[in-house]
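Why do we care about 3D structure at all? Because function follows from shape, and shape follows, mostly, from sequence. That is the central idea of this module. The next example makes it concrete: a single protein chain, its amino acid sequence, and then its structure expressed as tokens.
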Amino acid sequence: MQSQINKYYNTLFNLCIKHNNLELISNELKFVKHLIRKESSCRLLFDSKKLTDENKCLIIKNTLNQFHEIVKEFLCIIIINKKTKSLLEIINKFLNLADKELGKKKIEIYTADEVPTKDLENLFQSLNFEIKTKIDKSLIGGIKIKHENKIFDNSIQYQLNQLKKTLHNL
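And the structure:
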């Protein structure tokens, strides 16, 4: 099963490299991923037993008519080959490969409250970072930044824990 998943995302990746449209396809697949996660009607389309595969493909081609032909065909191939349960995993692995090829780095920012993403994007865009913000109420305040396997923690929760350790050792 895993080797089949590898074939799908590797084939798509190699096709994008060959046609020099990796960034475009990557952005469109990020949008498809967002739709699958956030829109129940989209998930229902992929999971429905009542619709034929041909009808599903027709709906995708009509709905995503502004998308690149590669994306529409890729989604139809996934449907026809009954791999919709693995679609998000395939997309995620493709996006990881694409981000490495494009030199994009991911950074996760944890805060206790909402931070205007425009400010963060302006800060990190010049460094070619893709930003993902998450709200973590346990931080109380401050910020925690995660990049690859490194974590910079300047949250109030971390500072309180450090103070607690220091006082405990006295």
